[in-house]
């Protein structure tokens, strides 16, 4: 009699696990679609920037650099790929911690400065570890009461 009950509870547990897995898959599908849309929007924006004013300005800068005997600047795409590789390498080395937000902000800032909008600056990202290091103990230091009485009595 206990065996069918145990089997039924196991079946219910497995069905709940399967339901959770399917919900997670649906969430992942939605997130994937959202990321794909964001990527395509970003690519379109990069293409618009590189084909527009940036291309004209880069041609002028490269011409001036050539007159000065300097090599031309690398393309925007190669700069973005270099920054992306650097970000991915740092993320691989440091793990997948809270650095994802600050590192993606650094890549976004690097792409902003590379696409000619370098006049926009942002504040450096605040790291929570510096706040923890700056904590000091509260209250009176140990033994300070006794030291003051000893110096007053002498």
TrEMBL record:
GO terms for cellular component: chromatin; nucleus. Residues 95-105 have a biased composition (Polar residues). Residues 135-148 have a biased composition (Basic residues). Residues 106-119 have a biased composition (Low complexity). It holds the Pfam family zf-C4H2. InterPro entries: HMGA, Znf-C4H2. This is Uncharacterized protein. GO terms for biological process: regulation of DNA-templated transcription. One of its GO terms (molecular function) is DNA binding. It comes from the Eukaryota. Residues 88-154 are annotated as: Disordered.
């Amino acid at each position: 009699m206990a065996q069918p009950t145990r089997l039924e509870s196991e079946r219910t547990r497995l069905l709940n696990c399967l339901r959770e897995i399917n919900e997670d898959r649906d969430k992942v599908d939605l997130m994937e679609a959202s990321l794909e849309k964001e990527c395509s929007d970003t690519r379109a924006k990069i293409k618009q920037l590189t084909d527009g004013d940036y291309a004209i300005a880069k041609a002028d800068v490269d011409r001036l650099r050539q007159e000065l005997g300097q090599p031309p600047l690398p393309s925007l795409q190669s700069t973005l790929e270099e920054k992306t590789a650097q970000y991915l390498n740092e993320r691989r080395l440091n793990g997948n911690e809270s650095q994802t937000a600050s590192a993606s902000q650094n890549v976004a800032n690097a792409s902003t400065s590379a696409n000619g909008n370098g006049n926009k600056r942002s504040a450096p990202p605040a790291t929570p570890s510096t706040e923890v290091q700056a904590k000091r103990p509260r209250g009176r230091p140990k033994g300070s009461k006794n030291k003051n009485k000893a110096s007053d009595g002498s």
